[in-house]
Amino acid sequence: MPTTIRQILCPTDFSEISRRAIAHATAIARWYGASLSVLHVCDSSGAMLGRIREQIAASCAEATGSGVPVIALVDPGRPAAAIVDRAASIPADLIVIGTHGAGGFEHLVLGSVAEKVLRKAGCPVLTVPPHAEGSALPFKRVLCAVDFSAWSLQAFEFAKSLARESGAALTALSVIEWPWPEPPAPVFAELPAEQAAALAEYRRYMEEAALRRLTSLVEQSAAGIAAEPRIGHGKPAAQILQAAADLGADLIVIGVHGRNALDLGVFGSTANHVVRQAVCPVLTLRG
Q1: In 10 A of CB 202, how many CB atoms?
Q2: At what angle do helices 150-166 and 16-32 cross, to 10 degrees?
Q3: How far is 187 from 241, CA to CA, in rounded Å?
Q4: According to the model, what pLDDT value does residue 109 have?
Q5: For residue range 1-23, what is the model confidence (pLDDT) as tens digits?
Q6: Domain's final residue, options 131, 155, 188
Q7: 173 and 197 share a domain?
Q8: Distances (CA, A) of 145 to 46, 50, 131, 139, 207
Q9: Strand (E) positions, the chain?
């Protein structure tokens, strides 16, 4: 099913980080012919509302100049809750939000506005870190993590759509997780011969099976896109980040199984690690 984006919500605090998020939201709105709602959350008197809307309009000059319909919104309340509520009321098909700190969430305490939005939003969320190495638009290289779960396949559909709209190459990454961190791989010469042979054969079997399945997915569903399969070994978050660095990816797409205190909210989850440490935008989709 083709991805449809008609309404995009982009919160702003008028910082440089928010400016980058608006630039990404603007590009995506142009690709999909979507409307862009730009939201500032504060408790302001009526006299200030006009000035805030003027600030929003100024920050969206590129969007309006390129024909993107822009709606300026000012809502009261706590930022994360107000963003999630507004996204539900629009209803937004995508939230684009900037993150603070040198590595996105890396230097933030758990519970930041963006982290709360990630946990609670009912629609996909694109987080844009500051000084993103892949900040030039359109996207040129999209990396999507695939573990063949329903939510990761949904993420792959979205990744295909973004790759097609932006003319990007797409890499589908499947990670085979082992009880030890990789790289490096275990040194088989240090193991008893029988165990080394069994482990080598098992690794070969797992990699071939995963590659066949991933190749089939790419060939059957990514027609018209420059797409390739890739297999990683080790911890998923580390492998996703390493693949993004190796490929020079300017977007990572990852599926998330739910958004509550037992999944994305738990520090140490794959999605949390990726979003906190990525140097390029990360799109998370709820399964």
Answers
A1: 10
A2: 80
A3: 24
A4: 42
A5: 457 899 999 999 998 889 999 99
A6: 131
A7: yes
A8: 46, 43, 23, 17, 16
A9: 7-11, 35-41, 70-75, 94-98, 125-128, 141-145, 169-176, 227-233, 251-256, 282-286
Per-residue pLDDT band at 99 (split at 50, 70, 90): confident
Tokens of 63: 């969007």
> Is residue 160 located within the same domain as residue 127?
no
Tokens of residue 162, six digits: 């973004």
Q: Tokens for 225?
A: 């896109």
- pLDDT of 111 above 60: no
User: At residue 127, what are phi and psi to the nearest 5 degrees?
Assistant: -95, 135
Q: Which pLDDT tens digit goes with each residue over 25-44?
A: 999 999 999 999 999 998 77
Give the range of the structural domain holding residue 45, as residue numbers without chain letter.
1-131
Distance CA 124, CA 283 (A): 7
Are 142 and 122 in the same domain? Answer: no
Supply the pTM of this predicted model: 0.89
Cα–Cα distance measured from residue 204 to residue 149, given in angstroms and rounded to the nearest whole number: 22
CA atoms of 187 and 3, how far apart (whole Å): 44
Alpha-carbon Rg for the chain, nearest whole angstrom, is: 20
CATH of the domain at 199: 3.40.50.620
CA-to-CA dists, residue 207 to 78, 204, 215, 243, angstroms: 47, 5, 12, 16
Count of structural domains within the chain: 2
Alpha-carbon span 158 to 284, nearest angstrom? 10
